[in-house]
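Q: Alpha/beta fold hydrolase, please. Structure only.
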Amino acid sequence: MIEPLLQCVENTPASTPDACVIWLHGLGDSGHGFAPIVPELKLPGSMAVKFLFPHAPERPITINGGMRMRAWYDIKSLDFESRADLDGVEASALQVEQLIRAQIESGIPASRIVLAGFSQGGVIALHLAPRFSEKLAGVMALSTYMCEPSLLANQANDVNKETPIMMAHGEQDEVVPVFMGNAAYKTMVENGYNATWQTYTMQHNVCMQELNDISVWLQKVLA
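A: Structure for Alpha/beta fold hydrolase:
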């Protein structure tokens, strides 16, 4: 059964968009959380980039006493190896893939689409991008980690091996410790992906220097 397309907060350029950034939020947030950063990126007016900030479905979260909130998957424990619920990750990755396919059908090729995610959203980005069947423009994985890294070698698709993957993390992150992000980075590199790693003096958030670096990176991969 095909799920209905994810609802999104949409930021469209003045001219017809020829590129798209799909940005996935973290646990308990919504598409509204990151939407205000678009003007902060100060992208040149000549770049016709559409930003989509989808809302994750609401679901009960085990570590929060079963409280329902927007989440891409359940978190059953804070254990490093089993933090992300694989079934939930795969279901959300499929929904995000449908969103990417919808952009392709609208006339924006996969090679002009960036998949970005923060925290839980980054988990989905790192799960979907290596398994996606078409070459993307780039992937951003911010303050995040990887679901079941041992599965990647057997499930990976080579088509995005050369795709730039920007991975960044806060050195004082107490929600997703920096070692988890670095482990995900090393897994991507060991599997032949074109990933870069950068840390910032921050907690589980984004900072101005990171936004500046994201802007430079987006201008490069969507040049």
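A: Brief note, in case it's useful. Helices lie at 37-40, 86-105, 120-128, 152-155, 178-190, 208-221.
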